[in-house]
Write a structure and sequence with these properties.
Blueprint (H helix, E strand, L loop, with lengths): L4 E6 L10 H8 L7 H12 L8 H7 L4 E7 L2 E10 L3 E2 L2 E2 L1 H22 L9 H14 L11 E5 L6 H16 L3 E4 L8 H12 L7 E5 L1 H4 L10 E4 L3 H11 L2 E4 L4 H14 L11 E5 L4 H14 L2 H4 L3 E4 L2 H22 L23 H5 L9 H20 L1 H10 L2 E4 L2 H16 L14 E4 L1
Helix pairs in contact: 2-4, 3-16, 4-5, 5-9, 6-7, 6-13, 10-15, 11-17, 15-16
Protein name: AMP nucleosidase
InterPro entries: LOG_fam, LOG_family_nucleotidases, PpnN, PpnN-like_sf, PpnN_C, PpnN_N
EC number: 3.2.2.4
């Protein structure tokens, strides 16, 4: 099937620093180790905004002739685009929000390559070095807001949710927006779009004109979760681990809606971080919420957490069913505690430096078949370390479900094998089976073929 495409010359809507000849060469370098492939694939994902597609491999195959080239001029730069998805344009003109996101891709890929990856002053093998890298990427993206009280709520949840669940997430976002709270999500569709859309209405009613709708993503997931058009600030971190750290250091509280393996990964990440002894007294409001029909979903999540991480993990979150007002009030009260804590400790409101994020939560996990098979999924370790390894297991499943490299690995070598303690494997098998049964692994209408096999 042929999909309609458009050729265009794009000029940045906002200010973008002039690129050096060396930087332009990096983007044009199609050889191994160059940035062109990464830049091209992320740009295509951004241009796919609004599409009902959650398969990174399928997206790349749908537009094989897509090309993007940086054109350097005396006054700045332009982008020369060939065979771009036509739905990114209106009457031949690119939608402004997509235009901004396209130049965000350029900004972040150049910056990460020059100032982070190739910077000898930043030690990405140390915990402090990784946290500093996350901070510098966010600061360069101009999304940190000093002299502003805490009010950023991170919303996590699945891209594959029902219409009723989407509408519920929108109502929660509306209630948060009415209380002057801003929204940060993974920037994709579903439970990532709903809260932002609701908050825009709440902000409009309160005449809040500078509402922040922050999207945080990474190159591996952006094709499956293209930034939704409400995102007014987008930042692309180099990998999933730095993306997750960006969420928990910039956000002042987290609301979790129903989702699949990716949402489970996010839950395990924040619980693992909060279970570290250094974070014992750290206030961090964490609410799980959904409709009455989602109650069984959260019971399954709660059962899994209780059986793997124990009662101390269950004390760090609250489950609120079908009550958007209560969710917003709980989040507002929790953020007030965060403000008081940061004020007493002298920590910044815009970046949580005091939060201890241990190395196992920062090291990039490559979900190869061997790495998945050799994960330490047993209770003979501290609960926060078990959470780190469980997080990696779910991260691998996400890769096998929707990421280009992961899908290709499954096609070539078959299922990921996940091994561990009998009790943990039984709980994991039950949880994943419930995700499949509730159609949370792929968008509606697509048959899900598991990319994993639980070895009990």
């Amino acid at each position: 099937m042929k999909y309609p495409v458009i050729d265009a010359i794009i000029i940045p809507e906002g200010r973008l620093d002039v690129l050096s000849k060396a930087e332009v060469s990096k983007l044009l370098d199609t050889s191994q180790g160059g940035l062109y492939r990464l830049f091209r694939n992320c740009s295509l994902a951004v241009l796919n905004c609004g599409s009902t597609l959650d398969d990174g491999k399928e997206l790349l195959e749908r537009y094989p002739d897509f090309e993007i080239r940086v054109v350097q001029e005396q006054r700045g730069i332009k982008l020369d685009i060939k065979a771009a998805p036509a739905h990114a344009f209106v009457d031949g003109n690119m939608i402004k929000g997509i235009n901004e996101h396209l130049f965000t891709v350029l900004r972040d890929i150049i910056y990460v390559s020059d100032e982070i990856t190739d910077n000898p002053k930043i030690d990405l093998d140390s915990s402090d070095g990784v946290s500093s890298a996350v901070f510098h990427i966010l600061r360069n993206a101009n999304i940190l807001r000093p002299m502003t009280p805490p009010k950023l709520v991170v919303c996590w949840g699945g891209h594959s949710i029902s219409r009723k669940e989407y509408d519920y997430s929108k109502i929660v976002g509306y209630e948060l927006g009415l209380r002057g709270l801003d929204i940060c999500t993974g920037c994709g569709p579903g439970a990532m779009k709903g809260p932002m859309k609701g908050a825009t209405i709440g902000h409009a009613k309160q005449r809040i004109k500078n509402g922040q709708y922050l999207g945080i993503t990474e190159p591996g997931i952006i094709a499956a979760e293209s930034p939704n058009p409400i995102v007014n600030e987008l930042v692309i971190l180099p990998d999933i681990e730095k993306r997750l750290e960006a969420f928990v250091r910039t956000g002042h509280g987290i609301v979790v809606f129903p989702g699949g393996a990716g949402t489970a990964e996010e839950i395990l990440y924040i619980l693992g971080v909060l279970l570290h002894p250094d974070n014992k007294d750290m206030p961090f409001p964490l609410v799980f919420t959904g409709l009455d029909s989602s109650e069984d979903y959260f019971k399954e999540i709660d059962r899994f957490i209780a059986g793997t991480l124990g009662e101390s993990a269950r004390q760090r979150y609250k489950i609120i069913i079908n009550d958007p007002v209560e969710v917003a009030r709980e989040m507002q009260a929790g953020i007030q505690q965060v403000r008081q804590f940061r004020k007493e400790k002298g920590d910044a409101y815009y970046f949580n430096w005091l939060l201890k994020v241990d190395v196992p939560f920062q090291q990039p996990f490559i979900p190869t078949h061997d790495n998945m098979r050799n994960l330490a999924l047993n209770k003979e370790q501290d609960s926060h370390l078990l959470a780190a390894n469980l997080r990696r297991a779910f991260s691998g499943i996400v890769a096998g479900n929707v990421k280009d490299d992961g899908i290709r690995a499954i096609e070539q070598y078959g299922h990921f094998e996940i091994r561990g303690d009998t009790e943990i494997m039984a709980l994991m098998d039950s949880l994943l089976a419930s995700f499949v049964e509730q159609h949370r692994m792929k968008l509606p209408g697509k048959k899900y073929v598991p990319c994993y096999k639980i070895i009990k």
